[in-house]
Structure formats: structure tokens, C-alpha cells
Automatic annotation (TrEMBL):
Protein name (database record): Cytochrome b
UniProt xrefs under Gene3D superfamilies: Transmembrane di-heme cytochromes, Chain C
PANTHER family, A to Z: BLL0597 PROTEIN, NI/FE-HYDROGENASE 1 B-TYPE CYTOCHROME SUBUNIT
Keywords recorded for this protein, A-Z: Cell membrane, Membrane, Transmembrane, Transmembrane helix
Domain Cytochrome b561 bacterial/Ni-hydrogenase stretches: 6-178
TM spans (from-to): 12-34, 40-61, 93-114, 144-165, 198-217
Length: 218
């Protein structure tokens, strides 16, 4: 067995920051703290934009190219015909989970930008669309999208528990320190000062883009 860096620091920080924001968004949405709800929403949009870019230029196992699988590969994995490399980063089912979480999170943030609670808070882009669109976006954001994301997160947690107690894979630990014990040599993810500096620059650019969008809309 050898220790291999699988999850670089930027990916780990993204993961835990998104988890914290998700919990806080549910809380602020339910308690009516909409000023903070919007701030957290902008933070999530920044994180998601960062992850999309980092999925192209980040560490080896954080790149989409390392875990985007064909339907045939997913079917073979479900039949128990998986490749040993599938246990390093995201396996085929993990790919579906990532795809669903990123996709529906982006949709949730997008609809939030066009939502209006008809009391005191409205998204910054509501003025640019019709009332019908605002109504549809608000309904999806407040009811449908929220439930979908909660279900996806619960399924994600259930999968983590399954791999922990049924297969003996501690996915949480590897997402904390970034390393996995592997029997075969595989390419490690780059995680040095240069890559972390690049991640910081990408994150700041994404934050600047979101800030510029909000200020332009207001």
C-alpha cells in the first residue's frame, strides 16, 4: 500500500465550503433571513463557477476528464465489472452524484437570481424578465429545487455511510486530508504552492465575476 494524494486542497476546500453553505442556505431560507440567504447564494455561485474551471485545470483526480464515464461503463460498474481505477477518485456512481449535485445546485442558484418572495426580497435579475418567469423561478426555487437538493444530499450521505460500513472505504477522511492508501501506483493530483496559487486566482476571478454581475443588475 502506498499513500497517494487524490484530492488537492482547493477541491477539499470547495467541498466543505459548499456543504457549510448548503446547511446555512436551508436555515436562512426557512427563518426568513433573506439578506444572508442572498449572500450565501452568491457564495455558492462563486464556488460552483470555481469548480467548473477547476474541473478543467485542477489536480488530476479533480478534473472532469478523470471521472466522466460513458453509460456502458456505468452499466458494467453496476454489474460488478468495475475497473480498479474507479476506486481512486469518483467512481461511475460518484460521477452521477457529482453531475446531479452540480447541475441542480447551478439551477437552484440560477432560479434564485430571478426569484421574488412578494414581500421584501427579490433576486437581482427579476427586473429583466416577465412576471410569469419570476413566478415560475420562485416556485421552483422555494419548493421543487430545494427538495431535490435535500434528497440528493441525503443520498450522498447514505452513499458515504454505505462505503464506510459495507466496503471499508472512509471517503470522509480522504476528503479531509486528501490522501488514499492504494495498492497500485496511480498518477497523484498536483497539490503544491503553484497549483494552490492558481486555484486562489481562479477563485478570486470567479468571485469578481459574481460581484460584477450583482452590482450591474442592481
Amino acid at each position: 500500500m502506498q499513500t497517494t494524494r487524490v484530492w488537492d486542497l482547493p477541491t477539499r476546500l470547495f467541498h466543505w465550503a459548499l456543504a457549510v453553505c448548503f446547511v446555512a442556505l436551508v436555515f436562512t431560507g426557512q427563518t426568513g433571513a433573506f439578506e444572508w440567504h442572498f449572500r450565501l447564494g452568491y457564495s455558492v455561485l462563486t464556488l460552483l463557477l470555481f469548480r467548473l474551471v477547476w474541473g478543467c485545470v485542477g489536480g488530476h483526480w479533480s478534473r472532469f476528464s478523470s471521472f466522466v464515464y460513458r453509460p456502458s461503463t456505468i452499466l458494467r460498474y453496476l454489474r460488478g465489472e468495475g475497473n480498479p481505477l474507479h476506486s481512486v477518485g469518483h467512481n461511475p456512481l460518484g460521477f452521477l452524484s457529482v453531475l446531479a449535485l452540480l447541475g441542480f445546485s447551478l439551477l437552484q442558484v440560477f432560479t434564485g437570481l430571478f426569484s421574488d418572495d412578494e414581500i421584501s426580497s427579490s433576486g437581482p435579475l427579476t427586473k429583466f424578465v416577465s412576471g410569469k418567469w419570476v413566478s415560475l423561478a420562485s416556485e421552483y426555487h422555494a419548493d421543487i429545487g430545494k427538495i431535490i437538493l435535500i434528497v440528493l444530499v441525503l443520498l450522498h450521505i447514505a452513499a458515504i455511510l454505505f462505503y464506510k460500513f459495507k466496503k471499508g472505504h472512509n471517503l470522509v477522511a480522504s476528503m479531509l486530508h486528501g490522501d488514499k492508501q492504494l495498492a497500485e501506483p496511480v498518477p497523484p493530483s498536483r497539490d503544491d504552492a503553484a497549483s494552490r496559487t492558481l486555484a486562489l486566482i481562479v477563485f478570486l476571478l470567479c468571485a469578481g465575476l459574481v460581484t460584477a454581475l450583482v452590482r450591474w443588475a442592481e
